[in-house]
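User: Here's a chain of 133 residues. Predict its fold as tokens.
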Amino acid sequence: MNSQWPDSGDFWGGRSGPQPPSPGGGVSGAPGFSWHSAPPPGFPPVPPGQPSHSGPPLARGNAVLALIIAIILTLTCVGVTDVIGIVLAAVALSKDQDPEEFDRYVRWAWLSNFIHIGFLVLLLVLFVTLSTV
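Assistant: Prediction complete.
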């Protein structure tokens, strides 16, 4: 029998034969076992005093796209009404240290863009309707 497998079948809850270890590198039923006992390989530990990054990385591309669309909407015939979208997207890009604030400003920038796209579509429909009368 290999040295990495336990000798008795009782440890595995009455099952006989060797059982492979769980994917975390230990035995899931072992006393004192913790899935988060060590950082994953390849990642340095977080220095003391610095906040750990929890959650997914920020979607900076989403904020940049909202900014580009806001600039394009400002240059269309609607005029300068989407300056609000430009300001919100720019503020979102400046809030990259706080993920909650970043997400909030990106959502508001997209909302502003969608409202102004709606105004643009409404004006286009109105223009087409009035020109055919």
